[in-house]
Amino acid sequence: MNTEWSGSTVARAQRHAALGEPARLAIIDRLLLGDASPGELGQELGLPSNLLAHHLKLLEQVGLIERSRSEGDRRRTYLRLRGHALTETVPAPLRTAPRVVFVCTHNSARSHLAAALWKRHSTVPTASAGTDPAQRVHPRAVATARKHGLSLTPARTSHIDQTLRPDDLVVAVCDNAHEQLGTRAPDRLHWSVPDPTRPGTDDAFADALSDLADRVDRLAPAVRPPGGSDD
Q1: Bridge-partner residues for 127, per DSSP?
Q2: What is the CA radius of gyration of the chain?
Q3: Distance CA 145, CA 116 (A)
Q4: What is the pLDDT of residues 68-120, one digit of tens each?
Q5: Residue 36 CB coordination number (10 Å)
Q6: C-beta separation of 115 from 102 below 8 A
Q7: Spatial CA neighbour of 107 closest among 39, 44, 159
């Protein structure tokens, strides 16, 4: 029998072994739909900081999660699931929401791109808003969407206070918005997507769209309207 396993087989075995512990599996379930800081994870899952740090280290070692520095409060880090590390894995139970609202700071790029992608994947209604809206949607966001068959026309910017309804599922698609929302929409999800308007290049906007598309692909099958189906 051949016992010289390929590197990919060994890596998969290590990931399965890491997921064989309930706390680590709970961490992955939480990160499947949105990013979180270590402190947020510890509070939500009821894990002491030393035990949480142990589990996070193991999950990082097998390539399931990675860290990024907050673009808002640079003292904070956020944990995220790595790309397609757990493709075709969706946690149960599913989320129910009458509408999904994507929020970023200026409501000029990421939140509009996320909403456009959502419309392609789900019949659950969607909207977007900002905590400090710009006067217009960024032209490169419009161009990037058009290049990928999405339309942001006639998209306009909107403030979160004028948009949010009590039962909305809020997805903050930037660190600043997540940190600024505070106790508003306490059950929200967070996606730590880098701001493409800072570098302002076509590549930055394309990378943001790709990141958002991967996340929408994971979240859309997990959200259903209350008392119904999105089919």
Answers
A1: 101
A2: 18
A3: 8
A4: 999 999 999 999 998 666 654 444 557 899 999 999 999 999 999 999 999 99
A5: 22
A6: yes
A7: 159
